[in-house]
Amino acid sequence: MTKKWVAIATALMLSGTAAAAAGWADHFKTLDADGSGRISRTEWDANSSKLKLDPTPTFTAMDADVNNGVDAEEWAAAEKMATAFPVSCKAASGSWCEKKY
């Protein structure tokens, strides 16, 4: 019986991961208004609040190479970090969350 529940939980987690990944890819396309393959700070400032990402990464944190643009690789890294952010940490009011992440 336990194996059955583990299989169900795994399937549910994987299906949610695929949906979240598709959402992030769509968000990148939405933010990259000029189709250049990178999100400029202007594009981010104009449209990021519409995405309702939780947690919402900051532009500065995503722009790893500090070229005032977020490319697909930097966006993928931000997605990985945000989706790994545990739900318990999001709901926490204590400082343990800030120290750990």
Short description:
The chain contains 6 helices and 2 strands, in the order αβααβααα. It is mostly helical. The protein has a two-stranded antiparallel sheet.
- Following the backbone from N to C, one meets helices and strands in this order, namely HEHHEHHH
* Strand numbers in spatial order across the main sheet: 1-2
Coarse morphology: globular
Radius of gyration: 16 Å
CATH level 3 topology of the domain at 22-85: Recoverin, domain 1
Q: Biggest sheet: strands, sense, closure?
A: 2 strands, antiparallel
Describe this structure in words.
With 101 residues, the chain is mostly helical. The chain has a domain at 22-85: Orthogonal Bundle (Recoverin, domain 1). The protein has helices at 2-31, 41-47, 59-62, 72-84, 87-91, 96-100, and strands at residues 38-40, 69-71. Strands 1-2 form a two-stranded antiparallel sheet. Helix 1 (2-31) runs antiparallel to helix 4. The radius of gyration is 16 Å and the shape is globular. It starts with a helix and ends with a helix. The relative contact order is 0.11. The model is unreliable at 1-21 (pLDDT under 50).
